[in-house]
Design brief:
Chain B: Pfam families: TPP_enzyme_C. Chain B: InterPro entries: 4Fe4S_Fe-S-bd, HACL1-like, THDP-binding, TPP_enzyme_TPP-bd. The complex is a heterodimer of chains A (515) and B (715). With 515 residues, chain A is of the alpha/beta class. Helices cover 56% and strands 9% of the residues of chain A. A six-stranded mixed β-sheet of chain A has the order 2-3-1-4-5-6, with helices on both faces. A two-stranded antiparallel sheet of chain A has the order 7-8. In chain A, helix 5 packs across helix 8, helix 11 runs antiparallel to helix 12 and helix 13 packs parallel to helix 21. Helices cover 37% and strands 17% of the residues of chain B. In chain B, the strands form six sheets. Chain B has a seven-stranded mixed β-sheet with strand order 3-2-4-5-7-6-12, sandwiched between helices. In chain B, helix 1 packs across helix 2 and helix 17 packs parallel to helix 22. The two termini of chain B are 48 Å apart. At the A-B interface, strand 2, strand 3, helix 2, helix 3 and helix 4 of A face helix 9, strand 9, helix 12, helix 15 and strand 20 of B.
């Protein structure tokens, strides 16, 4: 048995305070281990006693994961380190993603008395955020605001973007940010030496390191590097159409000021979908509502109508899909996204799967309706057409198929789909109009319900049925003072899950008091 | 080929006396084995000791030079059984696996080994997967040591202590003829540090030499009447011998002042956490010199009565710092105090929570609470009576989403579960069991497939009760790792023998992927020291499965879906097995990426596929994500006032596995997905043809732009 007889007296204060404690919160696959290794190497090269630990295991597979480093002060050779971070006892937190910064705050690793929080502003969305049919993305600004309060110093930049721009990974830009933050007592050269010593992808890592360093030292300069918003260009095309377009734009200028921005966007969408006559119909609908709208409410009704009527009129049919896929601008976008250079070739394969429903909906309205009503014909169409089609749109044959489909635009107004969409639109706007006299807010909410209709095939059908359910629910609460609020709740419930469980629950609640 | 290569690090295993080793805990353990003259090593991978197996595999050359036999055992049971070599021969052997599941699997062999007793030192290195980041049920391996009577080491979590424990473990094993289990916690396995090396030692008797001179001793066989003698031998000889050795060699340690009113009794693995708490309370200095006496149990079983009572003598109260439950150590120590008629008060659970990891805060609260009750005068004022409440932290509990692990980008298992989800949408909900391995991530959103996991290789076996009679057949999943570990006999043989009318899907990704990509029997890669390339479907036929469908490209979601549907609806009433095979994408990328980069550099033609989404065609319903969950398939908020919901977007990490397009097709989702194959170094003809094509296409596009209004990219 070993006995230690020399006992120091109690010191009263935290004797491990002089140990620098650093936590890295990362998402599996971000290279948190590499970053940890570099930090350890810097400290060791500077003659410090240092220890790093991690919890690996399945956390590597895209899960949240934590690395922990402790660095002893100069001259202490055999400190006793802890193997895990403790709440309220962390000097530096590096969060490789915004929600991981939030997780660090939640776990108490970020405290206003001492913690320097270095976070990447980018988001790696969790599955739970992505799978919501509506918008399930967590509010990064809430974490940013919390970080300002929770940390002694809060430093952030989009470290992912900085790293990718240099052909590297986020661990390198974060390492640069750590160096740039000045939170560790080592020089830039010492940090860079650690990258050199690791010997892998050194140049790209150093470039990303420099970008991360700069973002901390000179934050405004790197913000300026962000891409500016695209400028809206005037359309090109036949002179006659351009003149018609300008006439439409003048009509937009005559709308209430609060409506104009949305109406202009809606008009572009509708005209791009069909033509200027269709655009005129769009503006007729808006004008009709604007005439009955309430200026005291900022024409909220017409603003919502400008958005949702445009979406309803520019529905997603085969012609539109083919049109979007054969635009020159689209090919340019793909080339840019994939980083194609002049010397490289590009093959583009489209994944299309037409069903009998799509074929029938493209027939002239009368014929299409008869075909759709006939089981035998629908089965036949399925047999002929219903299978996955891979179309090489970079080749002439594939391109021409889509190009010819897109050329059917002039015929579109005679299709069954158009008739159905028009009928649906008319019925919806009729309801809105009816409601408007008694309950302005409810009418606005009914307009917003259009958001529920989206997707293709089954997803589209499910959206339609949710829309119908919410509209029916609106009928149940109509006349109540809180009707608009109920419809908003129904819509939000409908966007929560795929099957509409939340919506059914909300409807059940409504029936319990309004039945 | 394992996920992480230790080729460089294993060079450090050659260091000799006078040199300093710097690195991770698991490497230190390997070095300690070599310095101990180990004769054979083996084990089964699993966090947190997967890397230990990888290190051993990468160190085979060195092991060979030293005449050390390395075996990648088929299971933990096989690994523990291998220690039989130390029963009759004075050869040191070590095996490793994870606790507590590995101990469960190995318990038969461990119990027999402990009964027989050993001649050569037998060491079981258990990576205790407990607490944060753990992937298994929370239990303690401790109970196995108690029930089978082998000794349990739990060294302080720093490299010199762990290295010393390996050497002491062998010696203790030999001194008491008992196998020894060395426990390392998850963070100790990956903790970095330094220690002074000794020279590697060749085994005095190699397994090769032993094989040439076989021995047997009937007294070591676990059969009556010897088994009765074994039990008596444990109690009368081996146990006292162990206690003597522990005391004489000072395996446990005492720190702090000789005389004090209170003391701490701590598991070795808890030592650093305890010191940190004392440091924060101002009761230990930065190098760990403590004002409170600490009895460190580097051996947590057996507890040595004499030593403990000596430590307890003269103290008023003791605090036991023992993580996990039940509190075996506290109970044992309490019994000792009681039998000795001692008045020392023993604290432990109560001040500490019964369940869960002893995190920094829990350790601080537990120890501060104990000292406050017993010796408040030692504590600084602000601990006894805090002046101000700690600052309130912003509440983000509703903001921050949980982030459980999931399938990697391009994982070949994703399309299997997308297909299963489609089948369920068509036929209704099924009774589904999962197994252990990556495929268990399917139980989480967005798939939510599989409701139970009973153990490695036991997926189909855990559906045995649900055999026919219902409206729909039961389905089970099992990975290739689980299949070879235990599944072939316990699950598949079980199905065949009992004429099970259910469906089992073998998820074959060519590796034991979840544990880091180690090879298994059916791996396709050539492995210089192991026999791979043994197809699972052949093994199935061998045990009598008549209905087998082999799928060699899981990304074909339509085919996958049709095959599952066929298995669920066929008239055949015996076991139906689908082997769904595609290579683990992590491993595949690791293999192919350098080759591809090389080919591009050399000017050869290479197609690099990646998927994309037409953002003006995507309507933001996210149906594709609900059939995928791929990390590279994410969302993007458009700068378009007309759009409320973010649209799908694929980032540059996409590996072009094809799942997106296949799912869009099979589920008839939407036409917004496209695959873009960037062709590096296209041939001359190809470039020429592409040029012509693009000129004609551009002409057609210009033609249309002249006829209708064109808004550029605006939708």
């Amino acid at each position: 048995m070993t006995r230690m007889d020399s006992v120091t007296a109690p010191q009263g204060a935290d004797s491990a305070r002089a140990i620098t404690k650093l936590v890295i919160m990362a998402v599996g696959g971000q290279g948190g281990g590499v970053l940890t290794g570099w930090i350890e190497a810097v400290a060791r090269a500077a003659g410090r006693a240092v220890q790093a630990t991690s919890v690996a295991g399945v956390a590597q597979r895209t899960g949240a994961t934590i690395y922990y480093v402790e660095i002893a002060p100069e001259g202490v050779e055999h400190p006793v380190f802890s193997l895990a971070p403790a709440a309220g006892d962390v000097d530096i937190v590096i969060a490789a993603e915004m929600m991981e910064a939030g997780r660090a705050i939640q776990r108490g690793f970020v405290t206003p008395d001492r913690t320097v929080l270095i976070a990447s502003e980018h988001r790696a969305l969790a599955v739970s955020e992505k799978m919501v049919p509506g918008n399930g993305i967590a509010a990064a600004e809430e974490v940013m605001a919390a970080a300002e309060v929770a940390a002694r110093r809060f430093l952030s930049a989009d470290m992912e973007r900085l790293a990718v721009a240099k052909g590297s990974v986020i661990s390198a830009s974060l390492f640069g940010a750590l160096a740039g933050s000045g939170a560790l007592p080592f020089t830039r050269a010492e940090f860079e030496a650690a990258i050199h010593a690791s010997g892998k992808g050194v140049e790209a890592s150093l470039a990303a390191f420099a970008a991360g360093f700069e973002a901390m030292v000179n934050p405004t300069a790197s913000e300026n590097a962000q891409p500016s918003a695209p400028v809206e260009k005037a359309p090109t095309g036949p002179a006659r159409d351009q003149a018609a377009w300008q006439a439409l734009e003048r009509r937009v200028d005559a709308l209430p000021a609060t409506v104009q921005e949305m109406a202009r966007a809606g008009l572009r969408k509708v005209v791009a979908f069909q033509d200027c006559n269709y655009g005129a119909e769009y503006l007729d609908r808006l004008a009709a509502l604007a005439g009955r709208d309430d200026p005291a409410k900022g024409h909220a009704l017409t603003v919502e109508a400008a958005k949702h009527v445009a979406n309803a009129m520019a529905y997603d049919d085969v012609i539109r899909v083919a049109d979007r896929k054969t635009r020159a601008a689209r090919r340019a976008r793909i080339d840019a996204e994939m980083g194609r250079t002049q010397a490289q070739a590009m093959q583009v394969t489209e994944f299309l799967h037409p069903r009998a429903e799509e074929i029938a909906s493209m027939l002239p309205a009368g014929l299409g309706a008869r075909v759709q009503a006939s089981e035998a014909w629908m089965a036949r169409l399925d047999r002929w057409f219903n299978r996955g089609r891979r179309i090489r749109s970079d080749r002439l044959r594939g391109f021409l198929q889509l190009y010819l489909l897109a050329g059917l635009r002039g015929y579109r107004r005679r299709t069954l789909r158009h008739a159905q969409e028009q009928a649906h639109l008319a019925e919806w706007l009729r309801k809105v109009g009816e409601t408007l006299d008694g309950d302005y807010d409810l009418a606005v909410e009914l307009l917003r319900c259009r958001r529920l209709i989206k997707g293709y095939s089954d997803t589209h059908a499910r959206g339609l049925s949710k829309f119908d359910k919410v509209m029916a629910g609106a009928g149940l609460v109509a006349g109540r003072a809180d009707a608009a609020d109920w419809v908003r709740r129904l819509r939000e419930a409908a966007l929560q899950d795929e099957e509409g469980k939340a919506l059914d629950g909300a409807l059940e609640t409504i029936r319990s008091f309004a039945g | 080929m394992a996920e992480r290569s230790f080729k460089r690090e294993v060079q450090d295993l050659k260091l000799g006396a006078g040199e300093t080793f710097t690195g991770e805990g698991i490497l230190a353990i390997t070095k300690a084995l070599l310095e101990s003259g180990v004769g054979y090593v083996g084990g089964y991978q699993g966090a947190p000791i997967s890397h230990l197996m990888d290190v051993l595999a990468d160190a085979q050359e060195l092991l060979g030079e030293l005449d050390v036999r390395f075996e990648a055992n088929a299971s933990e049971a096989a690994a523990a059984a291998m220690l039989a070599a130390s029963v009759h021969y004075p050869i040191r052997g070590a095996v490793t696996f994870k606790g507590a599941v590995g101990v469960n699997v190995a318990s038969d062999a461990l119990a027999n080994l402990a009964s027989s007793g050993v001649t050569g030192g037998a060491l079981v290195i258990v990576g205790e997967d407990y607490g944060e980041g753990s992937s298994i049920m929370q239990e303690r391996s401790h109970a196995f040591a108690m029930k089978s009577q082998f000794w349990l080491l739990d060294p302080r979590p720093n490299l010199p202590s762990i290295v010393r424990a390996v050497k002491q473990g062998f010696a203790l094993s030999e001194a008491s003829n008992t196998p020894v289990m060395l426990m390392v916690r998850i963070r100790s396995c990956h903790v970095t540090g330094q220690f002074d090396c000794a020279d590697n030692v060749r085994p005095p008797l190699s397994v090769r030499e032993a094989l040439s001179d076989p021995r047997r001793d009937f007294a070591r066989v676990v059969l009556p009447p010897m088994s009765y003698q074994h039990e008596r031998d444990k109690v009368e000889n081996r146990w006292p011998a162990a206690e003597r050795f522990i005391i004489e060699q000072g395996l446990n340690e005492v720190f702090g002042p000789e005389i004090a009113p209170v003391g701490l009794v701590v598991q070795g693995g808890m030592y650093n956490g305890v010191i940190r708490a004392l440091q924060r309370l101002g009761l230990a200095d930065i190098e760990g010199r403590s004002a409170i006496p600490i009895y460190v149990l580097n051996v947590t079983y057996p507890l040595v009565g004499d030593e403990f009572l000596r430590f307890a003598a003269g103290k008023e109260a003791l605090l036991v710092v023992e993580e996990g439950q039940p509190e075996f150590i506290e109970q044992g120590l309490a019994a000792m105090l009681h039998r000795a008629g001692s008045s020392v008060r023993l604290h432990g659970k109560g001040l500490f929570p019964m369940a869960g990891e002893y995190t920094g805060q829990i350790m601080l609260d537990g120890i501060a609470g104990f000292l406050k009750d017993t010796v408040p005068q030692l504590l600084p004022g602000q601990v006894i009576a805090p002046n101000a409440l700690p600052p309130e932290k912003p509440d983000l509990s509703k903001t921050v989403p949980i982030r459980p692990p999931g399938f990697c980008t391009g994982c070949p298992e994703r399309p299997i579960f997308a297909a299963m989800k489609l089948v369920e949408q068509e036929l209704g909900k099924h009774q589904i069991t999962g197994d252990i391995g990556c495929h268990l991530f399917a139980a989480l959103p967005p798939f939510e497939i599989g409701g139970s996991t009973m153990g490695y290789g036991l997926g189909p076996a855990s559906n045995a009760a649900f055999d026919g009679g219902g409206a729909r057949r039961a389905v089970s999943f099992i990975g290739d790792g689980g299949f070879w570990h235990n599944g072939l006999s316990s699950s598949i043989g079980n199905m065949v023998f009992n004429r099970s009318d259910s469906v089992a899907i073998v998820v074959d990704n060519y590796y034991s992927a979840a544990t880091g990509g180690q090879d298994v029997l059916s791996s396709r890669a050539r492995n210089p020291s192991k026999a791979t390339g043994n197809p699972i479907s052949k093994a199935l036929e061998g045990v009598g499965v008549k209905w087998v469908r082999q799928i060699d490209r899981t990304y074909d979601v339509g085919h996958m879906r049709d095959t599952i549907r066929e298995a669920l609806t066929t008239d055949y009433d015996g076991p139906k097995l689908i082997v769904a095979s595609s290579e683990c994408m992590l491993n595949r990328q690791r293999r192919e990426k350098p080759l591809r980069a090389q080919a591009i550099r050399e000017g050869r033609r290479v197609e690099a596929p990646r998927f994309g989404v037409d953002e003006d065609i995507c309507t933001g319903d996210h149906a594709c994500i609900r059939l995928s969950g791929c990390p590279s398939l994410s969302l993007k908020t458009l700068d378009d006032p007309l759009r409320d919901d973010p649209v799908a977007s694929i980032d540059q990490t996409c590996v072009g596995c094809g799942n997106c397009g296949e799912v869009a097709d099979a589920a008839v989702l939407c036409p917004s997905f496209y695959r873009a194959d960037l062709v590096h170094n296209p041939g001359r003809w190809e470039a020429l043809l592409a040029g012509w094509r693009s000129r004609i296409i551009a002409w057609l596009q210009a033609r249309r732009a002249r006829r209708v209004l064109d808004f550029g990219d605006a939708a």
